[in-house]
Amino acid sequence: MNTGELLILLVLGLPLFAAAVIYAVGRMPDVRETLTLVSCIALAVVAISIFVRVGQGQPPELMVTQPVPGLSIAFRAEPLGALFAVMASVLWGVNSLYSIGYMRGRREPNQTRFYMCFAIAMFGVMGIAMAANLFTLFVFYEVLTFATYPLVTHAGTPAARRGGRIYLITLVGASVLLLLPGIVGVQAVAGSTSFVAGGLLAGRVDAVVGSVLLLLLVFGAAKAALMPLHGWLPAAMVAPAPVSALLHAVAVVKAGVFTVLKVSAYIFGPDLISFLPAATWILWVGAATIVIASLVAMKKDDLKARLAWSTVGQLAYITSAAMLPMASGLVAGGLHMVFHAVAKITLFMCAGAIYVATGASRVSEMGGLGRRMPWVFTAFLVASLGIIGLPPMAAMWSKLLMMTAAFETGHWVFAAALVASSLLGLVYLLPIAFRGLFPPLGGPAAREFVRPGGTPGTAVFAVCAGAAGCVVLFFVADALANYLAPIRAVTIMEGAP
Predict the structure, then answer these.
(1) Cβ atoms 201, 183 nearer than 8 A
(2) Residue range 262-296, pLDDT digits in tens
(3) How far is CA 321 from CA 151, 223, 287, 342, 497, in A?
């Protein structure tokens, strides 16, 4: 076994090993949580090692099995997948650190199951990131769905069970009725589901067949929450704040847009995308999703609901960028996947920190809380600027690249939606931080802490780390863009079954 194969096995095996160990020591909370953090660090180290090897032109790969001709369980890293793996593994560590403070501060039940499901979810994410073909990606895509279902229903309330039903029915239904037929169609046309540089289907389908397959695969990836298959995401807000952060930043939604990016880059390719009417239709749907979600977010007083609708709009940025008929759209989408993840996990962690400390969950209850919780509300302000895309926050660069690509390809509707969304973001995000940090004179007194000492220290550290990440990524955006630049030139098991 060579080093590359060992790295693939480690990036897949570590989360499963962590889940087993967490179960074994579940009655010892300190040990359980220490092992969780150690597992997070170990996974991040392995993911970064893969990231470096891909950048050096030595992508790890592993063929596991080929149950039937043309379908295989196989893995190979490429720039987009390596970046996704690093993003997810690092943010798993940040979210786990935050979860320790949150879960203990709230005295939540079933904490061992909670950490186990997180680890299994990361197994699914790593499999998606490293998948060498659509069939492998589909298998791990479904693992992620079922691993996160217990997290959505963690509270055990009727609302949680209802949110879980919507979550499962929407995601599994879309996979079975849309994504799987799309994969079967690709296999029937190309005799393979492998990800290939320039697009597996390039030169093999006409506009009609290509459009049908594109629609099946994009809407089948319902984790991307493109309207009208977005309802599961706001419904899942009944879950605890660390789960919301996982859903909206680390794992689930990013698995959806990552799938769309991979399909666009390696199944169709920008050249074929430019000839498919369905790509333009999806762009229009994406533009509508961006604006409608932002307008709905403005009306939500519940903080997590407002952030959830913001996520719906931001994900549509990435899906739309993947439909632009040029490689820079794919690079912009890949960058925004990372930049949005860091900013949005910070916002959800801030929302949970506020709730643990004060019991406040509505925007109208935030007045003056920034004076009691300055670090949390400052982090919220920084992450809000990150979502909006103002300098010196990283998302400025991905939005600028999207805008440039939209203008160069004549997709003015998408460009207009980006501008409108950024302006609406100013309206529905900034007042939250300003209301907490700079309350009007003579306003009502800020709420008292319901938890002695306010927000747990680990949670405060986690939100500050997230806010710092929004700024640090601003200065490394060019390096990440250069890392993703070969996305059209990288072949993933080309010609392999």
Answers:
(1) no
(2) 999 999 988 888 888 999 999 999 999 999 999 99
(3) 30, 16, 10, 19, 29
Q: What does the alpha-carbon distance between residue 26 and residue 8 come to, in Å, rounded to a whole number?
A: 28
**DSSP result, 347-397:** HHHHHHHHHHHH---BGGG-TTHHHH-HHHHHHHHHHHHHHHT-TTSTHHH
CA-based nearest residue to 82, from 26, 115, 123, 129: 129
CA distance 133 to 263: 10
For the entire predicted model, the pTM comes to 0.91
Tokens 């149950």, located at residue: 67
Residues 6+ apart with CB under 8 A from 128: 84, 137, 140, 141, 144, 255, 258, 259
DSSP string, 392-429: TSTHHHHHHHHHHHHHHTT-HHHHHHHHHHHHHHHHHT
Cβ–Cβ under 8 Å, residues 216 and 178: yes
Residue 333 · residue 318 · CB < 8 Å: yes
State how far Cα 476 lies from the chain centre: 20
Contact assessment for residue 191 and residue 232, using Cβ atoms and an 8 Å cutoff: no
Write b or e for each residue in 55-79: b if 16 or more Cβ atoms lie within 10 A of its Cβ, otherwise e. Answer: beeebbbbeeeeeeeebbbbbbbbb
pLDDT at site 251: 83
- Which residue type is seen at 184? V
Q: Phi, psi at residue 75, to the nearest 5°? A: -135, 140
Spell out where 187-312 has E strands: none
Strands 61-68 and 71-76, how do they pair?
antiparallel
Nearest to 398 by CA among 261, 198, 245: 261
Cβ partners under 8 Å of residue 301, min gap 6: 362, 363, 364
Q: Which two tokens stand for residue 100?
A: 């320790």
Q: Report the distance separating Cα 497 and Cα 489, nearest Å.
A: 19
Q: Which of 83, 67, 90, 191 is nearest to 128 (CA)?
A: 83
3-class SS of residue 30: helix
Task: Quick: pLDDT tens for 202-255.
Answer: 888 889 999 999 999 999 999 988 999 888 888 877 777 778 777 767 788 899
Peptide bond into 325 cis (omega under 30): no
Task: Decide if 59 contacts 129 (C-beta within 8 A).
Answer: no
Two tokens, residue 81: 């997948």
* CA neighbor of 224 nearest in space, from 192, 261, 183, 197: 261
Q: How far, in Å, CA of 132 to CA of 494, rounded?
A: 9
DSSP state of 61: E
Q: How many CB atoms lie within 10 A of CB 44?
A: 20
Whether 389 contacts 395, CB under 8 Å: yes
* SS3 of residue 166 by DSSP: helix
Determine the Cα–Cα distance for residues 313 and 300; give it in Å rounded to an integer.
14
Q: What is the pLDDT of residue 175?
A: 93
